[in-house]
Write a structure and sequence with these properties.
16 helices; flat; mainly alpha; about 60% helix; single chain
Length: about 325
């Protein structure tokens, strides 16, 4: 018996009857020889971790565009916090940690430069729209590994696609990531907003603090414990009505006071205009886009989708660099002065 088979057997013996077992995965779009060490979800996690799209997250905006300071969250640090919250919950509920971690690490791969401002701009420009969760799936299915994709399991792709509020994953592990995403960004965005002097803890309505806690640590503790307590022994992931409503109200508070705050979002119009100019420039100069993208035109992909693929994969700084290259005059230099 291989190491993988021993791990699969251990999953069957120790995990909850509601867990998504590796051995029961719906599989991959392309069949592969199984690894002798790693079950399928662990293998997916490793593929995401080693992907180029994952490495680029370190230089993509979470909320604050190009902040001056080393301690503001990036899309990568957000992803790691989501993963840690989700693994804590999964372990307590005896669900599949490998699946949770794979979904969490992959859920934001499709985010644009400049955070949601970039997403909104590409959504306006692209004929078929642009949503980062769908782009994350497109990356792991079509764009990574020079067009081969990562060939992830159905459960991981389902969790990535359905991590947003308006949709629901088909596994409990996916549902954990969906909630962990909200828990992470609400709390770390409060922390970053306080650091940026946009707000102070005392701005949060007292009635919400009485329920959730008066510090980031207390709120995380409350939310994670509440999910675990209310989900043990159930074929669902849920919170108590009181705590869930308080979390939604805190999220609405953040939209009103931080996400739409003119100080925090003051540069967004510039970022959107930058991406718009790049979009139209590449639409007229496809030869500047790497061949691994443009060859998909022969497979029937639309030109605007290819352009969005390329732009959305950029880091903040790379997008700024390309804009400067195409639209700002360069200093004239003559040898010998």
């Amino acid at each position: 018996m291989t190491i993988r088979e021993n791990i699969e057997k251990m999953e069957q013996e120790t995990l909850s009857p509601y867990a998504a077992l590796s051995i029961h995965s719906r599989g991959r779009e392309r069949e592969e020889e199984p690894c002798d060490i790693r079950p399928v979800f662990q293998r997916d996690r490793d593929r995401i971790l080693h992907s180029k799209a994952f490495r680029r997250l370190k230089n993509k905006t979470q909320v604050f565009l190009t902040p001056k300071g080393d301690h503001y969250r990036t899309r990568l640090s957000h992803t790691l916090e989501v993963s840690q919250n989700a693994r804590t919950i999964a372990k307590a509920l005896r669900l599949n940690e490998d699946l949770v971690e794979a979904i969490a690490l992959g859920h934001d791969l499709g985010h644009t430069p400049f955070g949601h401002a970039g997403e909104y701009e590409l959504n306006d420009l692209c004929e078929d729209g642009f949503r980062h969760n769908e782009q994350s799936v497109r990356i792991v299915e079509k764009l990574e590994k020079n067009g081969e994709g990562l060939n992830l399991t159905w459960e991981v792709r389902d969790g990535i696609l359905n991590h947003q509020t308006r949709t629901m994953p088909h596994t409990l592990e996916g549902k954990i990531v969906r909630l962990s995403d909200k828990i992470a960004y609400i709390n770390h965005d409060i922390d970053d907003a306080i650091r940026a002097q946009i707000m102070v803890e005392e701005d949060i309505p007292k009635e919400l603090c009485d329920i959730l806690g008066y510090t980031t640590k207390e709120r995380l503790n409350t939310l994670i414990h509440n999910i675990i307590t209310n989900s043990i022994g159930k074929d669902d992931i849920m919170m108590s009505k009181k705590v869930e409503e308080a979390m939604h109200r805190l999220r609405r508070f953040m939209f009103e006071h931080v996400y739409k705050n003119p100080i925090a979002k003051g540069e967004e119009n510039k970022a959107r205009e930058l991406l718009k100019q790049l979009y139209y420039y590449y639409m007229n100069h496809l030869e500047l886009i790497p061949e691994k993208y443009t060859r998909m035109l022969k497979a029937g992909e639309k030109k605007d989708r290819i352009v969005c693929d390329y732009i959305s994969g950029m880091t903040d700084q790379y997008a700024i660099t390309k804009f400067e290259e195409y639209f700002l005059p360069q200093a004239w230099q003559v040898d010998g002065y």
